UniProtKB/TrEMBL annotation:
<protein>
    <submittedName>
        <fullName>D-hydantoinase</fullName>
        <ecNumber>3.5.2.-</ecNumber>
    </submittedName>
</protein>
<dbReference type="Pfam" id="PF01979">
    <property type="entry name" value="Amidohydro_1"/>
</dbReference>
<dbReference type="InterPro" id="IPR050378">
    <property type="entry name" value="Metallo-dep_Hydrolases_sf"/>
</dbReference>
<keyword id="KW-0378">Hydrolase</keyword>
<dbReference type="InterPro" id="IPR011778">
    <property type="entry name" value="Hydantoinase/dihydroPyrase"/>
</dbReference>
<comment type="similarity">
    <text>Belongs to the metallo-dependent hydrolases superfamily. Hydantoinase/dihydropyrimidinase family.</text>
</comment>
<keyword id="KW-0479">Metal-binding</keyword>
<feature type="domain" description="Amidohydrolase-related">
    <location>
        <begin position="49"/>
        <end position="433"/>
    </location>
</feature>
<dbReference type="GO" id="GO:0016810">
    <property type="term" value="F:hydrolase activity, acting on carbon-nitrogen (but not peptide) bonds"/>
</dbReference>
<feature type="domain" description="Urease alpha-subunit N-terminal">
    <location>
        <begin position="1"/>
        <end position="32"/>
    </location>
</feature>
<feature type="modified residue" description="N6-carboxylysine">
    <location>
        <position position="149"/>
    </location>
</feature>
<dbReference type="GO" id="GO:0046872">
    <property type="term" value="F:metal ion binding"/>
</dbReference>
<dbReference type="GO" id="GO:0005737">
    <property type="term" value="C:cytoplasm"/>
</dbReference>
<dbReference type="InterPro" id="IPR032466">
    <property type="entry name" value="Metal_Hydrolase"/>
</dbReference>
<dbReference type="Pfam" id="PF00449">
    <property type="entry name" value="Urease_alpha"/>
</dbReference>
<dbReference type="InterPro" id="IPR011059">
    <property type="entry name" value="Metal-dep_hydrolase_composite"/>
</dbReference>
<dbReference type="InterPro" id="IPR006680">
    <property type="entry name" value="Amidohydro-rel"/>
</dbReference>
Amino acid sequence: MDLVIKNGVIITAEETYKADIGVKNGKIIEIADRIEDHGAEVVNAEGKYVLPGAIDAHTHLQMPFGGTVSADSYEAGTRAAACGGTTTVFDFALQQKGHGIIQTAKERDKLCAPQACVDYAFHVVISDLRPEILDEVESAVDYGIPSFKVYMVYKKEGLMADDGVLCQLLQKSKETGALISVHAENPDLIDLRTETYLKEGKTSAWYHYMSRPEFVEAEADKRAIHWAKSLNTPIYIVHLANKEGVEEVKRARDMGFEIYAETCPQYLHFTNEVYKREDGRNFVCSPPMKGEESQEALWMGIKTGDISTIATDHCPFQTSEKDWGKDDFTKIPNGCMGIENMYPYMLSEANKGRISFNKVVEVCSLNPAKIFGCDELKGSIVVGKDADIVIYDPEKNFTISKNNMHSDVDYTIWEGVKLKGYPIMTFSRGKLVFEDGEFLGQPGWGKFIKRKRKKLL
Ligand code: URP
Ligand code: ZN
Ligand code: ZN
């Protein structure tokens, strides 16, 4: 035994109970009322909760986007993840024109592997679908990459997939066991509305929201779900942020379709009011934060199980880059931060009584592991799984500030947000990578996770 975590209250998606945990060679090898340490390192977790590390299934680290590169490198992003109790990160690898799927993932891995402080995987964004790429999906699944993403937006950026591309990929996913994720917003409406506001001289951050309000997102959610239902394939909607979308997901799931929705902590905490603030441009992301009704529907969707996962869409930019859009919202690079905030924020909401701790573990750890095919290793505290473990102090109060975060970004949208309870230790495969506010891990520690998906519904 290398490590024994004693006297803590273990919380998984299904259970809450007091037990000791034994760890050897990075794996959980024993869970029992009492484990003798026999000289192993001992962590006394009396009065603390012991949780599986979170899985952030949606990040954009050092990604070329919005005329620059997102501000957290793989090192900074995964360091921040570890300090917020996230022990696995799924990053998006963007396919370049003419490149293959596995080539795309391998090129990204060359950048990521020497920097990663926690384990990681890639979803490949398909932006150049050709017959060879469709044929390659099966090899990519066999290689351990069974998840792909298409953007229904970002036409000018050269990333957009039309409905034909989406449907070909959905069909292929049925044949291969892959899962297609979509960023769902209607690109034509966004362009039309944006042009109108600019012509009228309406250029503040509020018009970022106005150019893509609730119904612009809802239409694309409904269209994506329509294709998935028609072709009888699974689909995963990333960063869902509107009420009608939640209702459509619920309808489809109630009919028995394998439809998954993810939302993000920023949509659960902030509303579109942020775009009226002086620093509104710092909150510019797509889809934008919505009104209170949507926010309530998202919380309800989590409670009913219609929203399956929480992830961050971590894609931060520095203040100076956000400032490009001071006088024109279309020049603001789209994206916000959250990689260090997701688990602490959701756990704090549980600690305040909004949802159960088990539900937080379900949506932040177990469900992403199952949906994206790494649940043999991750997502719970069970003998045989990786010892990705967070020790959480429910009594520790914490106020988020740029100064106590661990990323490379010079501000945080979460500044001043008060949390009840906070992670005090994070273990990645049994190695202590975070303790009491301090990062203790090392770049290069994180491993690429090969995955295999199972149909769930
Ligand atoms: O505004 C966002 N979300 N930026 C990152 C790219 C994406 O759409 O996920
Ligand atoms: Zn997106
Ligand atoms: Zn994203």
